[in-house]
Amino acid sequence: MQWNLIASEKIKPKERSRLRIFAGTKYYRLKRRIEYLTDQKRYASSIEERTLPYLHKTHKTILRRELKDVDMWYQENKITNLQIAINKLNGVVVYPGETLSYWKLIGSTSKRKGYQKGMVLHYGSYKSGTGGGLCQLSNLIYWITLHTPLTVVERHRHSYDVFPDSKRTQPFGSGATCAYNYLDLQIRNDTDQPFQLCFELTETHLHGEWRSVLPPSMTYEVYQKDHRITHEHWGGYVRHNTIYRKVFNGQGKQIDDEYITENHALMMYHPLLTHSESEVQSTDE
To answer: Which has the closest alpha carbon to 193: 148, 141, 258, 138?
Structure first.
C-alpha cells in the first residue's frame, strides 16, 4: 500500500461552493442514468417471496446508536427510511450473470415516497437530508457479500472516519458508502446458481442475509492488514488499512488469501480520544 504526498493532497479537505456541489451532483447522476441505459449489464430485478433454502451469511446491525451531539430523531427517521428501502430489496434474486445495483433497485429517496430527513455525512461532518441513514444498509450488504462467492464490481469507501472505534465488531473500512445514484454498490453473480438477498427490520436491529439454491462450499474470514494512522503535513490525521479475506473449503482448509480493497479516511476526531470522551457507540461501519 503506497501513501505519498500526492495521495495526501487528494484526501485533504477542500472547500466546495454550494453551486459546485449542486452542479457536480446533477452531472454525476445524469452520467449514471446514461450508464444504466447503455452499459449492457443484466440488472437483477426479480423479487421472490419464497426464500431460497441455504444460508451463506447473516449479519445484524443496531438501529439506535447514541452519537455525541446528534439528536435521536435522526435515528428514528433513519429507521423509517430503512424500511422503505428494504421493501425494494427484500427477496431480490440475482441470477447467474446478473448484477445487483443498490440504487437501481431502491430508486431516488424522495419525500414523495415517504422518506424522512435523516443524518447524512457531508464533508466530514453531518447534516439532515431526505433519505438519510441508508449507508447502514449499504454497509451491511457489502459486509455479508464479502462472505460469499459473489463479486463486488463497484464499491465506494468512506472518505471520512467520523466516529471512534467504541465497540466496533468489524475491521475499519469494511463498509460501503452510498449517495443516490452515483455512489452505487454493485454486486455481480459469477456463480452457476441464483443468490437471494433478504432483510428483516426488528424493533432493535436491521438483519440481512444472502441465501442460495445450493449449500455453501466455502467459508470466509475477513480481516485487515497494515492498519496505521498518519499525521499529514497539512495538519490532519488519516487512517489507513487494507482488507483481505481468507477462503476455506468445505473441509476447513485454507485455499486462498485474497486482497479485497484499501482504505484511506480522514479522521474527524483525535486519534488518542478515549471512548468516554467520545460518548459514541460505533458498533459497525
So the answer is: 148
What is the per-residue pLDDT across 121-159, written as a single tens digit (0 to 9) for each? 766 567 788 999 999 999 999 999 999 999 999 999 998
Strand spans (E) along 63-183: 92-94, 98-101, 117-122, 125-130, 151-154, 160-161
CA distance 283 to 123: 22
| Coil vs helix vs strand at 69 | coil
Residues 6+ apart with CB under 8 A from 40: none
Q: Residues 114, 84: contact at Cβ < 8 Å?
A: yes
Quick one: cell of 4? 505519498
Q: Is 103 helix (H, G, I), strand (E, B) or coil?
A: helix
Pairwise CA distance, residues 86 & 84, whole Å: 6
pTM above 0.90, yes or no: yes
Helix (H) or strand (E) holding 68: none
Among 143, 198, 203, 146, which Cα is nearest to 170's? 143
Q: Do residues 152 and 145 make contact, with C-beta atoms less than 8 angstroms apart?
A: yes
Residue spans of the chain under pLDDT 70: 1-2, 6, 67-70, 122-125, 166-167, 272-285
